[in-house]
Design a protein that fits this description.
Length: about 190
């Protein structure tokens, strides 16, 4: 099955994000989709030729996780931001869980900001453990390192330099503040309730 890049041009004009930054980010995302398809095709060809024991097969298999996660994390990221967003619904189950876990939305934001501001490249993700119903702000290093097995991403923030450098230079904290203003809490709540 071929993956198709989603169109996120509805985000153009997003406050705090220049169109130039967004367009560059969309092209990067489209590359992850293309590479996921390319690597999937290469793996299928190796399998068909019974070449699954060659080093190239193993390296492509490893690389597929990185490209696939890059594709999916970007989709989750673009889907959980928007121009016409509203604050988290105070009566929602997600708001109750945030308050239970962090004490308040403000404390959650403090922890999420700190997670995103860590040195290095990666992702800050609010995760739900579907078994325990616990939530966590987690740092994902690269695309494929640091995920909580079986956990569901509720809110994803890209903190690779490509997500902010054109608009904010090295001021990652300013980018994080801009991100927090455009969170589509309805999307996060929908993910929480699925």
């Amino acid at each position: 099955m071929k993956y198709e890049a989603k169109n996120f041009e509805n985000l153009l004009g997003l406050p705090g994000f220049s169109d130039n930054l967004l367009k560059n980010h969309f092209v990067l995302y489209q590359g992850y989709v293309a590479n996921t398809n390319k690597l999937s095709d290469q793996l299928a060809a190796y399998l068909k030729e019974d070449k699954v024991a060659v080093p190239e097969y193993a390296e492509i298999k490893r690389r597929l996780g990185w490209e696939y996660d890059g594709m999916r994390l970007h989709e989750l990221y673009f889907e959980n931001i928007g121009k016409n967003t509203s604050p988290i619904s105070a009566g929602s189950e997600l708001a109750a869980k945030i308050n239970e876990t962090f004490g308040s939305l403000e404390n959650w934001q403090k922890d999420f900001r700190a997670t995103g501001a860590m040195r290095g490249i990666g992702w800050a993700v609010l995760y739900l453990d579907p078994l325990s119903k616990n939530i966590f702000n987690i740092w994902i290093n690269e695309h494929d390192t640091g995920h909580l097995a079986g956990a569901k991403p509720l809110l994803v923030m890209d903190v690779f330099e490509h997500a902010y450098l054109l608009d904010y230079g090295i001021k990652k904290a300013d980018y994080i503040e801009a991100f927090l203003k455009v969170i589509d809490w309805a999307e996060a709540e929908k993910r929480f309730n699925k």
